[in-house]
Amino acid sequence: MFLVQYTGLNQLPFDPANNNEPLQFGSASGPLVTEGLIENGGESSKKRKRTNAPSDFDPALGMMTGIPPITPMMPGLGIVPPPIPPDMPVVKEIIHCKSCTLFPPNPNLPPPATRERPPGCKTVFVGGLPENGTEQIIVEVFEQCGEIIAIRKSKKNFCHIRFAEEYMVDKALYLSGYRIRLGSSTDKKDTGRLHVDFAQARDDLYEWECKQRMLAREERHRRRMEEERLRPPSPPPVVHYSDHECSIVAEKLKDDSKFSEAVQTLLTWIERGEVNRRSANNFYSMIQSANSHVRRLVNEKAAHEKDMEEAKEKFKQALSGILIQFEQIVAVYHSASKQKAWDHFTKAQRKNISVWCKQAEEIRNIHNDELMGIRREEEMEMSDDEIEETTETKETEESALVSQTEALKEENDSLRWQLDAYRNEVELLKQEQGKAHREDDPNKEQQLKLLQQALQGMQQHLLKVQEEYKRKEAELEKIKDDKLQVEKMLENLKEKESCASRLCASSQDSDYPLEKTLNSSPIKSEREALLVGIISTFLHVHPFGASIEYICSYLHRLDNKICTSDVECLMSRLQHTFKQEMTGVGASLEKRWKFCGFEGLKLT
Fold first, then answer.
1. Is the pTM of this model over 0.70?
2. Alpha-carbon distance 73 to 96, whole Å?
3. Which residues contact 214 (CB under 8 A, 6 or more apart)?
4. Which of 177, 199, 196 is nearest to 111 (CA)?
5. Which segments does the entry list as coiled coil (predicted)?
6. Looking at beta carbons, which pairs linking 207-215 to residues 24 or more positions away fall under 8 Å?
């Protein structure tokens, strides 16, 4: 018998199996045990005396005074305790009811087995009931789990209980394994061990299926509403053709704002087959009205293209302005890096200035490359289409020849590999023949002959391929020579044209005096001509100009003997090729030379 309450708190002051007194626990509403049970154990309770009880113990309550009794029926407490970790054993308590008492099972025993839970289960099977147990006692025990809808009791000590909700079944399963005793009787007919399990009922299954069908209907309705929300709106219906509608559509076709709607209506009418001999003139007038919008659309496209070109020009101007400002910032950094100002800065300040200078130069170079790319695209758009066609044809011919030579090379390599493979097979056959020492073996001789014949054929084919490869190489070299000759001829023609233009210019200037002709040739030597070409190339790369010190620093890399004053004098003499401008503001005012050969060529 269980002498210890499974709460781990106090030892029971009596043996519940042998005690004949009623188990009374007081509460705010009075005792939970009926008065009829007190009469059964009245005499035995008078004979039993409790000794060693504390002075403040109240025998009427069965616990210490000042402490309210803890019962499963108190607010906040129920039969089902809070969730317990799975690794901890479940400790169950004694449950006292009005007509019976429930004793928990041995915690060391395994939990009672249950069947698989049916879907939507609200009904439980309760077995092991006492023979004297009534429906009222069953209701008293299991109504604490939840609202009971129906009880079907059998004469064989079991019953079926149907609850209102599914979670109540879990509470009822908690009572499985409890020993039940009616009152304080120890009679076998008043005791039993409860076995609670899931029961399969048609009502539960029907309700569960109805609920599932309702959920499915709700899900379908929700999906349908979502699809309808995401579905694009259907186009408005097109009216049927009539004279009145035709006049309305004809008026709409003349209006720019309603043109698209009217054109859609006209297209639908034509596709429906509304055009006949009577309505052909009306449809022709509407088609003519639609055609009148072509010019408007072309003008709109031209206006948009003009806006795009203006935006490109604005972007190019803004980019050039940004580059000018970057050049000024870089000039500030370079002037700060000179020794006059550099010595007065601290080490950290020098480091920051050098880092800023590098970053500004990188950004400036990126923007400069972008601007040069825009200019290159414009130049390429204005290039001659005929030159491109000729170069493309030459490139296609050369690529065809190169591809043929590569194919021949691959074929030659494959034939060589096959030849090596045949030779290895012949050698292997010869070794096998020497090891076997078989004199009369006609099959091997035939194989050797066949292999030799195949080898000879492969060698002949290889020779033919090599001859063809040499012939193709000779053709390719001949074509390359022809290409070089054509290029030389083009250069000669260009030189002749330039000479002819010079002779024409000299013949035109022959009327002027000799002094003017001497003064009109500012380049006096070939060295100066080379310097002019190098400076022109350098300034062409720097479209925003460069100072004379920057130009001379670049020329000193090529020749240390170049003098700054000579370079400046030479550039000042060529006014149509180089021009000097002032850039900057205030202290950063600087003279810069720019290349203006393209504009000077038009002027001269």
1. no
2. 9
3. none
4. 177
5. 287-321
6. 207/120, 207/122, 208/119, 208/120, 209/120, 211/120
